[in-house]
């Protein structure tokens, strides 16, 4: 099979002409054309290999043979919508249920993280009868109109905050309003939610949902203070609202110790609605909302059928089942724990050597390296982070940045990432930071 239809320059010219320019490319100054991939490796049109440190969608590895076989076998047989009775959807829901607390037991299958979050908003509204939503600052929950409305990362750029949306500070122990030296971070940040809820009530409004990622990713790979979610859930439920955990990025064993990132908050915490997406189908569009029977019943009670043409079709569910099988068979959760732990340790060693590394954080294969100009005032080293990403690309390692100041280099690679990959990444970052320091010194001594 030919790997290219057009030479790279022509592909680029056609893309500029035909595809909306708000759909951006990685490395827009010098885009990479990828024609095939396997595991954690991408290959360009000349056969050059790139190490992929950011594709959390291709969760069990790009083009995993078990996934492609499951997809093609089911495609040969049947793909129909969910109004016909079929085993795959119930078998898949049953397998997912086994990874979750009993309370989360009713599933709705959809095609993207955005669809999942939009449905979560509807479920919350229907169950509570309330309209208002509390979100964390810098959050992103999807591209639908309803989700731009609850994504400060997007609506701030548009200068348009809806009156039913309330933004709480990101509980970021490194850069947030309360930091790692605070005696009770969880309580301090949860107290703000409590007072926000009081303000909402004073305006005569009522909370429908608190909506947050279990580990805020666009916010800069943040690890929520332990105990935070339980306290917030208590306040939100007391106000008649529900707790929605967005695990579109973080689910399916990425954190290593648990299957779901919300479980990092302890045994006593369980959201009322959980949304999932990206890694579910290993690149096939498959996403889901799971909730309690009470919430699902309230949604059913409105008498309106929920129909989704593609959601939960036999091919999607065959793929979802194959993804779960590979996670188990290849112990990818264990791999995330071991390799992620090793990479974190290597990055910590670099932190001891390079003052530009302000913070190294994360769990499993969800890590962040925050660059700062000054460790005291923690001023973000945005340009330097950008330079590191560009230089890593020259080394054929694909990385990107996140966080409100785009100074957090993020790692969320396919879960088959190896110890050798981790070592190669750390070694190259070390070299690049040394080079940056040398260039910086030369410029300083010229002045
Ligand atoms: C946390 C989070 N929620 C929801 C979404 C939306 O998912 P999708 O792009 O599949 O619609 C994203 C996408 O980046 C996301 O990161």
What does this molecule look like?
The chain has 447 residues and is an alpha/beta fold. It has two domains: 171 residues, Aspartate Aminotransferase, domain 1; 265 residues, Aspartate Aminotransferase, domain 2, CATH 3.40.640.10. The protein is 40% helix and 16% strand. The strands form three sheets. The chain has a seven-stranded mixed sheet with strand order 4-10-9-8-7-5-6, sandwiched between helices. A four-stranded mixed sheet has the order 1-2-3-13. The model has no long low-confidence stretch (mean pLDDT 97). The structure holds pyridoxal-5'-phosphate. Pyridoxal-5'-phosphate (PLP) binds next to helix 4. The site of pyridoxal-5'-phosphate (PLP) has 14 residues, from helix 4.
List keywords for this structure.
447 residues, binds pyridoxal-5'-phosphate, Aspartate Aminotransferase, domain 1, 13 helices, single chain, seven-stranded mixed β-sheet, four-stranded mixed β-sheet, 40% helix, Aspartate Aminotransferase, domain 2, 15 strands, alpha/beta, 2 domains
Question: In a nutshell, what does this entry contain?
Answer:
It comes from Chanos chanos. The protein is an alpha/beta fold.
Name of the CATH homologous superfamily of the largest domain: Type I PLP-dependent aspartate aminotransferase-like (Major domain)
Annotation, overall tally of beta strands: 15
Oligomer: single chain
Architecture per CATH nomenclature, i.e. the level-2 architecture of the largest domain: 3-Layer(aba) Sandwich
CATH topology of the largest domain: Aspartate Aminotransferase, domain 2
Beta percentage is 15-25%
Low-confidence stretches: none
Order of secondary-structure elements:
HEEEHHEHEHHEHEHEEEHHHEEHEEEH
- Helical fraction equals 40-55%
Radius of gyration: 22 Å
Mean pLDDT: 97
């Amino acid at each position: 099979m030919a790997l290219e239809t057009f030479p790279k320059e022509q592909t680029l010219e056609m893309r500029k002409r035909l595809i909306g320019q708000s759909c951006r490319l990685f490395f827009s100054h010098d885009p990479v054309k990828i024609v095939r991939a396997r595991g954690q490796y991408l290959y360009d049109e000349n056969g050059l290999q790139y190490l992929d440190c950011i594709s959390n969608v291709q969760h069990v590895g790009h083009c995993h043979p078990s996934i492609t076989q499951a997809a093609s076998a089911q495609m040969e047989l049947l793909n129909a919508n969910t109004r016909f009775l079929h085993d795959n959807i119930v078998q898949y829901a049953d397998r997912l249920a086994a990874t979750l607390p009993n309370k989360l037991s009713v599933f709705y299958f959809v095609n993207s993280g955005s669809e999942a979050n939009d449905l979560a908003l509807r479920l919350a509204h229907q169950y509570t009868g309330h309209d208002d939503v509390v979100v964390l600052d810098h959050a992103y929950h999807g591209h639908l109109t309803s989700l731009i409305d609850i994504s400060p990362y997007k609506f701030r750029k548009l200068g348009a905050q809806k009156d039913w949306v309330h933004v709480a500070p990101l509980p970021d122990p490194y850069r947030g309003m309360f930091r790692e030296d605070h005696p009770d971070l969880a309580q301090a940040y949860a107290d703000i939610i409590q007072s926000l809820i009081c303000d909402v009530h004073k305006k005569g409004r009522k909370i429908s949902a608190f909506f947050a990622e279990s580990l805020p990713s666009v916010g800069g790979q943040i690890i929520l203070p332990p105990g935070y979610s339980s306290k917030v859930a208590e306040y939100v439920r007391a106000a008649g609202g529900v707790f929605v955990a967005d695990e579109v990025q973080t689910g399916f064993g990425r954190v290593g110790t648990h299957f779901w990132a919300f479980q990092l908050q302890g045994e006593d915490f369980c959201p009322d609605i959980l949304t999932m997406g990206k890694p579910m189908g290993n690149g096939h569009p498959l996403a889901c909302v799971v909730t309690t029977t009470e919430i699902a019943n309230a949604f059913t009670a409105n008498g309106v059928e929920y129909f989704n043409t593609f959601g939960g079709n036999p091919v999607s569910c065959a793929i979802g089942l194959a993804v779960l099988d590979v996670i188990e068979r290849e112990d990818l959760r264990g791999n995330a724990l071991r390799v992620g732990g090793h990479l974190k340790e290597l990055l910590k060693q670099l932190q001891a050597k390079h003052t530009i590394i302000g913070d190294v954080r994360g769990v499993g294969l969800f890590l962040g390296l925050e660059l700062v100009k000054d460790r005291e005032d923690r001023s973000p080293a945005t340009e330097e982070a950008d330079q590191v990403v560009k230089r890593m690309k020259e080394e054929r390692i694909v990385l990107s940045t996140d966080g409100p100041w785009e100074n957090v280099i993020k790692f969320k690679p396919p879960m088959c990432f190896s110890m050798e990959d981790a070592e190669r990444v750390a070694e190259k970052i070390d070299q690049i930071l040394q080079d940056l320091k040398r260039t910086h010194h030369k410029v300083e001594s010229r002045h």
